[in-house]
Amino acid sequence: MKRFFNWLKALFNRTMDKVEDPEIMLDQARRDMQQALVANREKAVQAITQKNRLQGMLEEANKKSTTLESNAVVALKQGNRELAQSFMREKMTNDAVIVQLQESYNKAAAVVDSVKVAIKRQEEEVRKKTAEALALKAQWKQAQIQNSITKALDGLTFENEFESFGAASERIKMMQSEADARQEMHSDSIQGKLMTMQDKAMDYEAEAELEKLEQRLGMKQAPVAAEESQTVSVSAGNGQPVSPAEEQKLQSEADKQLEELEKRLQGGS
User: Fold this and answer.
1) Predicted confidence (pLDDT) at residue 134 exceeds the cutoff of 70
2) How remote is the C-alpha of 38 from its chain's centroid?
3) Which residue in 69, 160, 200, 217 is a FRET match for 19, CA 20 to 30 A apart?
4) Which residues, in sequence order, are CB contacts of 43 under 8 Å at separation 6+?
5) What is the pLDDT of residue 158?
6) Nearest-angstrom CA–CA distance, 199 and 119
7) In angstroms, rounded to a whole number, what is the distance separating the alpha carbons of residues 29 and 182?
8) What's 171's DSSP letter?
9) What is the pTM of this model?
């Protein structure tokens, strides 16, 4: 019975040795780093896509303002001042949208630049850890060879004296390998938290841009505390009536821009 328990004990120890094999642990750590890098690259692609989308919207808004001003010029040349005024009011609304788009694009571009830097650093860290893993594997092989030699020497006349020394040496090596693995995982955890914070920041900006898009499409009411220029823009876009004071202000601003446009036309002719 004692021999049977000794056999079970030996079998259990052999299985645990395989599970805690440094080579297996290093390979798993390397795979985890590679998977985290791939996931972060995908998030970076999504952030760049949103930035490019904002850039396209900004370019279209600028083209629209240019077209509206050209239409106002044509209307003035035809003597239709009322139509020219309508074009200028629409241009004012579109210019307010351009300001918002430009601000959102600048923020998105800054986030994308930060993400690119973080990805580059992570790639460098992965390469560094991979090289360290290869070096640790070589040290593990050397330790195994040295341990084998020690065991062979234990079979001579100093078996009892060196038995404790060999066990202590092996234990120290195992603890060192575990400490290295924990350090690698700790570094990955810090990098993962940094990526999570950046992802949340990008999600918040994307949600803000979506709310602005819903407001421009009339799918969502604009905030009450919005700036005066934005309030006028939303009201005019939805066709809702504005107060006499706001209408007077719009009329005065449109007349002022029309007069400047007429002066440029007269000077050009």
Assistant:
1) yes
2) 13
3) 160
4) 115, 195, 199, 202
5) 46
6) 13
7) 10
8) H
9) 0.43
